[in-house]
Design a protein that fits this description.
The protein has 13 helices and 24 strands. By secondary structure, it is α+β, with helices and mostly antiparallel strands. The chain has three domains: 238 residues, BirA Bifunctional Protein, domain 2; 46 residues, no CATH class; 95 residues, Rossmann fold (3-Layer(aba) Sandwich). The longest helix is centred in the first third of the chain and has 20 residues.
Length: 443
């Protein structure tokens, strides 16, 4: 990572903490690697992303059914899915300092190549020799019930997909859908990453938005291309910089055990081009292993549907979006940083301020405007902390599209000042026109 991108990443991480987007997990106790907590604006941003995703791929469609499966599942689910045997990463350990690393992520510029599965020397931390490469299962184990034995072992789910597959029969029995149709879910997943890294990119507890789209075998290529287009449209709709989005056809040896074809959508993060989303053709692997099938009620034909799976990571979406919308304006006396979110996805739509916080008449009027907008849009912020310049700077870094200021002229003509985040331009409009003004901008 070059100096410019290093600085950009540092700026994004600093802004995220300073403005209440993302905090280090368990920070007051020294933190816990691979965990991050979302603050008020981070939660709002995540919810906006998830709500738009749900509206786009579930509520607006006639062929999609939403589920919310349990995180804890019968261990036989993970045996049937192949995760117990194959959900592994290559692990090497420094013989000297005992630190562990993913063998496929060691920096080749710092280390010699693997020789028969062994790195001869070059621990990134101490320079010591590395152990033989071995497979490490990334699923978190835990115990269920009061007796700790092998029969009580269960796992935190490493993906949300299996919660949809095991509910396939329930959806069939309840709703009698016709092929093609899909199941959709948003939820937490857990992976015991050997080396969590790059802020919220590679973490141990994360959130997925995922679809399992059930089709007839002969139609898989058509629907694979269809969902490829849908995913590209989604990335553009939320405001990702599409110049930084690339497709990668995943080679057979690198695909997951269930996949016959996978395309990864890569994004140019400040730390390099890395996987953002995935689109996999899972064939009939999962339903067949779970012993599930589909009975066509019209033809009477029984078959095992095949599956196309679009997968979207919520946390990686947040990070890619932050990298896309982070801007700096050097036209003034000092550099102004701001987040150029699309208004539909911004955590705050507008902020309302009295010009002077110590003037009751301005505060009272501002509260009337604030309540009016809060009732209409919800994502509205009251801000009277510091002078007006500091408020503008704070709202710019939050990504608030419009700041509304009540001043002394407001008391005489019922007009307010609206400042645009991106241009810094201001205009005056009547109080009764504010709601329609913002609605038009949102649309």
């Amino acid at each position: 990572m070059d100096k410019e991108n290093t600085n950009l990443m540092e700026k994004i991480i600093s802004l995220c903490k300073r403005r209440g987007f993302v905090y280090p997990g368990s920070e007051i106790y020294g933190g816990l690697a691979g965990t991050w907590d979302y603050g008020p604006f981070g939660v709002a941003l995540k919810n906006n992303i998830k709500n738009l995703w749900w509206k786009t791929f579930v509520e607006s469609r006639e062929d999609m059914y939403g589920v919310d499966a349990a995180i804890l599942m019968n261990s036989n689910v993970w045996k049937a899915s192949g995760h117990v045997d194959t959900f592994t990463d290559p692990l090497v350990e420094c013989i000297k300092c005992k630190k562990r690393f993913r063998a496929d992520q060691l920096d080749p510029t710092l280390l010699p190549p693997l020789i028969k599965g062994r790195v001869e020397e070059g621990c990134p931390d101490c320079g010591g020799k590395m152990s033989e490469e071995r497979k490490f299962n990334m699923m978190f184990k835990t115990q269920i019930g009061a007796v700790e034995d092998s029969s009580a072992t269960i796992y935190l789910r490493p993906e949300t997909a299996q919660g949809m597959f095991v509910n396939f029969k329930n959806i069939i029995d309840s709703f009698h859908p016709k092929l093609p149709f899909g199941l959709a879910q948003i939820g937490k997943a857990f992976r015991n990453e050997i080396t969590p890294r790059d802020f919220i990119f590679r973490i141990r507890e994360f959130e997925q938005m995922e679809i399992e789209y059930f089709i007839k075998k002969d139609d898989w290529e058509k629907y694979f291309e269809y969902w490829r287009g849908e995913m590209m449209q989604w990335m553009e709709a939320i405001g990702l910089d599409m110049n930084h989005v690339h497709e990668l056809e995943v080679a057979k040896e690198d695909r997951a055990h269930y996949s016959s074809r996978t395309i990864d959508f890569y994004f140019d993060f400040p730390f390099g081009s890395k996987e953002l989303y995935g689109l996999a053709y899972r064939t009939d692997f999962d339903l067949k292993n779970h012993g599930l099938s589909y009975q066509d009620e019209e033809s009477g034909t029984k078959l095992v549907p095949h599956v196309v799976e679009p997968t979207f990571g919520v946390d990686r979406t947040v990070l890619a979006l932050m990298a896309s919308v982070y801007k700096e304006d050097a036209s003034g006396e000092e550099v102004r940083s701001y987040l150029a979110f699309k208004p539909s996805i911004a955590p705050v739509i507008c902020a309302v301020s009295p010009l002077l916080k110590n003037k009751p008449e301005l505060r009272d009027y501002a509260h009337i405007v604030y309540r009016m907008l809060k009732d209409e849009f919800g994502r509205v912020m009251w801000d009277d902390n510091g002078n007006i310049g500091k408020r503008y700077r704070r709202q710019d870094e939050i990504g608030t599209p419009w700041c509304i200021v009540i001043d002394f002229d407001t008391l005489t003509d019922d007009s307010v000042t609206i400042r645009d985040r991106d241009t810094g331009e201001q205009e005056r409009i009547k109080k009764e026109e504010i709601v329609n003004y913002i609605k038009e901008k949102l649309n």
